[in-house]
Structures are given as structure tokens and as C-alpha cells.
Design goal:
mainly alpha, 5 helices
Length: 86
């Protein structure tokens, strides 16, 4: 019996390497959402003060709720609550 392989993966499924590549692609929508995060008052307060309710809120809820915070991390490689280093 002969097995058919597609793109180096079994049964036509994507390998974990293919999945990681797809996650790293930054789209125009990601850039727009990341810009929203940069302009967000709550996120800016968290980045500036690094303490308080805004910091806690952004730090613990950013990854699961806010698409702008997720895009910020994807585009800039930093969490939305982390300070901007100039």
C-alpha cells in the first residue's frame, strides 16, 4: 500500500511548524487593532503607571478578552501592559 504525503505532513494535515508560521503573519487588520491598543486610555495608563487597577486589568485580562491587546502583542512583540521603551 502506498501512502500519499502532502507538504511533508501525514494525511494532508498541517504540521506544527506550518501552524506557527500562520500565527506569525501580521495582517493589516492586526496593525489596525494594535494601533487601537496604543490609543486606548486603559492600556496607556497601564503602560505608564505599571501599577493600579488599569495595570491589573490589562495584565490579567488582555490575552483572553481584548482583540486589540492580542494584536498589540502580535505586532510589537510585547504585552499591552508592558512599558514602551524609547
Amino acid at each position: 500500500m502506498t501512502a500519499i504525503y502532502s507538504s511533508g505532513s501525514l494525511n494532508g494535515q498541517k504540521s506544527s511548524g506550518d501552524k506557527k508560521m500562520a500565527e506569525k503573519e501580521i495582517t493589516e487588520k492586526d496593525r489596525e487593532l494594535a494601533k487601537q491598543c496604543l490609543e486606548c486610555k486603559v492600556c496607556n495608563t497601564a503602560r505608564k503607571n505599571q501599577r493600579g487597577f488599569a495595570f491589573w486589568f490589562v495584565k490579567w485580562l488582555e490575552g483572553g478578552i481584548c482583540p486589540a491587546c492580542k494584536a498589540h502583542e502580535k505586532v510589537y512583540g510585547r504585552k499591552a501592559h508592558e512599558p514602551i521603551i524609547e
